[in-house]
Amino acid sequence: MPETPERIDLGPGLSISRLVCGLWQVADLEKDGTPLDPERGADALNAYARAGFDTFDMADHYGSAELITGRLLARHGKGHGRPVAFTKWCPEPGAMTAEVVRRGVQDRLDRLGVDRVDLLQFHWWTFEHPAWLDALHEMARLREEGLIGAIGVTNFDAAHLAVALGDGVPVLTNQVSFSLVDRRAAGPLSDLCRAKGVKLLAYGTLCGGFLSDKWLGRPEPAAMPDWSRSKYKRFIDAAGGWDVFQGILQAAADVARKHGVSLSNVATRWVLEHEAVAAAIIGARLGESEHRADNLKAFGFALDAEDRGRLEGAFAVATPIPGDCGDEYRRPPYLTASGDLSHHLDAIPSIFTAEPVPGRPDRLRVSSGSVWEPIAGYSRAVRVKDTIRVSGTTATHGGDRCVAPGDPGAQTTYILDKIAASITALGGSMEDVVRSRIYLRDASKWEPVSRAHGRVFGAIKPANTLVQAGALVGDYEVEIEVEAVVS
Question: Could you give the C-alpha distances from 58 to 71, 86, 89, 111, in angstroms and in order?
Fold first, then answer.
């Protein structure tokens, strides 16, 4: 068994442990309003760092985790070999001006007590609000200033990660749920990451502790004592329930017995062996329930074809977690501790506002703010009684910029987000769409457009027309209009 975790180079000067210490449980420990003592917390983190677990992951909403980590970093100075600190910025949806983004980044710097964040990861609650691209581009500018070492995102699905990359954002990592229970990241997201050189940071690898020997053969719990287990019990329910979960546990236990390791080691190893995964994030309880010695055993064996076949057999009985990575935060069923976003946000604002049409009480419209709308005389969308019609929509951002030039799949994803926001503002939803029309610059690029359309409309299946339009204006590869009927 190795004495320290394996390491991986994420980028120049960014060497990390392949087992990252996640500090989300700090918020759990402080939920009664009593903060942890930062020096004692730093002592606990230092014990991890001395054992080679020297990479820590936290967020702006993980209680005092940034402050505790800041105390640890201060003890080690700025020299080579100091612990590595990842944190996340998870702002509420709204305008992401240069000032807003700089303030969000500066808050992370101040709380960590550093001049540069090693890896700053960005989370966005709803892609219907397009300011997430503004935020990422501002972060890229602050990276050039030296305030950010590397840019990551969290809970991005493959489609929106592709939009960010296609729009020129230098994304290095994407932190997503990935486990024997939640295997979504093994699909299109891993394919994209391999193609583009992005690495995954996997959280939820042990499902809040459920993927361990202690739960094998145990009855289904009636209540959850903390946020983490409340969340992952929802994942277990979505994957087919407790009996199906016990089947996965039994398969992992059989593999563990063969290799003389723990069930948790098998769960971790399965995730780490995916090519796109740089590291798995394990919970650090700051002195409670530390399992460093056992966690190291994940690097002392490898899964063979028989092991994978046994696990695949258990997966075959399970129900795939719905949607793509991050959907648990953006659409029902919300697989969060509370089952919705109430403990994260008060509300999600719309980018568009429905306006009455003078003299027409049966009509509403929304405008995108384009300078051409009043000049050319059109609206982004109009609702007449129960019918919503959305104008031909392109991947225009900020009024005049084409998103992801040359990438028709990414442009389609961005367009459908704009369309969804328009329909939502008028009281409908994408499920109400009955007709879509797609116009392509180049008919040979129909497949990425069709796949992006299918990710949104695969279950809705509106009537559709796809035509080659020839020379669309500017760098636009695709334009889409839709019609919806609100029931």
Answer: 14, 6, 10, 12
What's the mean pLDDT in 444-469? 94
Range of the domain at 58: 7-329
- Residues 316 and 396 occupy one common structural domain: no
- Phi, psi of 87, deg, nearest 5: -140, 170
In a domain, 100, yes or no: yes
Same-domain status, 396 and 292: no
- The number of domains in the chain is 2
What's 392's domain CATH number?
Answer: 3.30.1330.40
62 included as an active-site residue: yes
Q: Same domain for 359 and 317? A: no
Instruction: Give me the catalytic one of 62, 203, 329, 476.
Output: 62
At 190-214, the pLDDT tens digits run 999 999 999 999 999 999 999 999 9
| pLDDT at residue 28, rounded to an integer | 73
Residues 408 and 281 in one domain: no
CA 260 vs CA 166, 250, 256, 301, 484: distances in Å: 45, 15, 6, 9, 58
Residues 176, 276, single domain; the answer is yes
Residue 230 and residue 157: Cα distance in Å, rounded? 23
The count of C-alpha atoms lying within 13 angstroms of the C-alpha of 136, restricted to the half-sphere facing its C-beta, is 26
CA 12 from centroid of its chain's CA atoms = 24
Does residue 1 lie in a domain region? no
The average pLDDT across 231-259 equals 97
Q: What are phi and psi of 403, to 5 degrees?
A: -80, 140
pTM above 0.70, yes or no: yes
C-alpha–C-alpha distance, residues 104 and 91, integer Å: 8
Give the rounded percent of residues in the chain with a pLDDT score beyond 70.
99
In a domain, 227, yes or no: yes
pLDDT for the residue numbered 202: 98
Mind listing the pLDDT tens digit for each residue in 81-132?
Answer: 799 999 999 999 999 999 999 999 999 999 999 999 999 999 999 999 999 9
Co-location of 443 and 305 in the same domain: no
In 188-258, beta strands by DSSP E: 199-203
Mean per-residue pLDDT for 298-323?
Answer: 97
Domain co-membership, 206 together with 150: yes
Q: Where are the alpha helices (DSSP H) in 239-276?
A: 242-259, 263-272
Q: Tell me the C-alpha distance between 35 and 32, whole Å.
A: 9
Enumerate long-range contacts of 338-347, CB under 8 Å, 24 or more apart: 338/230, 339/234, 341/125, 343/227, 344/61, 344/90, 344/125, 345/92, 345/93, 345/125
pLDDT of res. 79: 64
Residue 453 lies in a domain: yes
Q: Which pair of tokens denotes residue 351?
A: 């980018």
480: its two tokens: 């889409």
How far apart, in Å, are the Cα atoms of 433 and each of 130, 380, 437, 468? 21, 16, 11, 22
Regarding whether 362 and 268 lie in a shared domain, the answer is no
For residues 402 and 405, give the distance between their C-alpha atoms in angstroms, rounded to a whole number: 6
